[in-house]
Predict the structure.
Amino acid sequence: MQKIKIENTFAQDWIRMFAHLANLFFEQCEIITEDAENASKVDFIFKELEGNKLSAKAILNYEGKQYEATFSEIEEVGDAKVKSRQLKRIYSHVFLEVLEQATEMKQSWGILTGIRPMKLYHKYRREGLDSEEAVEKIMKNYRVSREKGELLAKIAAIQLRSVPDLYDLKDEVSIYIGIPFCPTKCAYCTFPAYAIRRKSGRVESFLDGLHEEIREMGRWLTEKDMKITTIYFGGGTPTSIEAEEMDELYKTMYESFPNMEAVREITVEAGRPDTITPAKIDVLKKWGIDRISVNPQSYTDETLKAIGRHHTVQETVDKFWLSRNMGMKNINMDLIIGLPNEGMAEFEHSLAETEKMQPESLTIHTLSFKRASEMSQNRNKYKVADRKTVEQMMKLGEEWNEKNGYDPYYLYRQKNILGNLENVGYAKPGEESIYNIVIMEEVQTIIGVGCGASSKFIDRNTGRIKQFYNPKDPAAYILTYEESIEKKLAFLDGIFPETVKK
């Protein structure tokens, strides 16, 4: 384990910040404040310069060599929080730069470890900057490479083409409906996903609570004459439940939610091919739902076994064509780069198989070691691709999508992601998922119902976000969903105190 000593003057949130940055360079790194054997050391020097400039210098002693970096900028006007954010950004600059010098490893996303890069770009555009000015500011303030900055600009242009009123959706809401069951749980997964078992009766009990939650939310939405932008069924795998249960759920949704004819998009994740049947597709068609996800993740059977997906590659192919031939006109597929024992050859094969099907959209995820996943807890058991390989895989994915007529339309990043890369959603022109755009850019309130559903309540005036999480466990959800309904309605009343005028 790499150890880096810093001064014993920083608060814990600063130490966490330095640790997140250091972990971009080292598989395991600990930030310490006491002397330790074989530890590297960073000294910081801070100065307030003439012209209201703030400046920081970092001096790193690493493996017998010394590295230095300095960064300064004009002090921002604002309260203590504004100054704290600026100081963290300045210190992050110099800390990252000396680590880049020492390791000869360039971070294309600069000091960004948790923030959503697209939100920064949109923020600068809404402040009046043109595209090039927004890119330049992101590069300067956050050390982001030009290549990544221009990717943000390209994605934003496609988002605004797909949703021209993106910045004006604050008076509408979207709905997320979480169904927490899967045939099995994947090794990399931390979503609410429980192996579906019928004997305990928890599926039926959960669905009873979900119907009631939908009805109660529907009453509030109807009273406010609220417009719903999109509805998204996630999980888990929403198609894990039976066709008759899906039918009843969609019936309740249509009876409860107002203005359903104005909803722009309804998506149902059918991510596990082993849950897709002709009867379930018939139900989707009955309710006018034709956007689904059929997620291969990989087209190598050995990989699917290693990550706990109990279906075959052939089943993915068969269920895609079943869905297509039965009338599903908007199908998304997901691929994950960096899965155990996969390199360029396996990813090239996955792309070649995808090319035969030409789904309307393709999301390329980079494997992330999420803290609670089985893969993270048993990391030594899983051999994954190195940084150089995953970078090559991501580049290959970009080239494949461009060649096949797909545009990048949303992007997000996660901590502990291989190669410090990103997840990118691509789509054929006009087939972009509106829900994916609005949730990633956090432009409107998302009401989450069901197990593990996250609600994001966005203040229409300040843009501040409050989050509320339904319980992940079905048993806990069944016991507390009525209390969750009350709390969410209270949040909603605070945001929408009066009926929104259309």
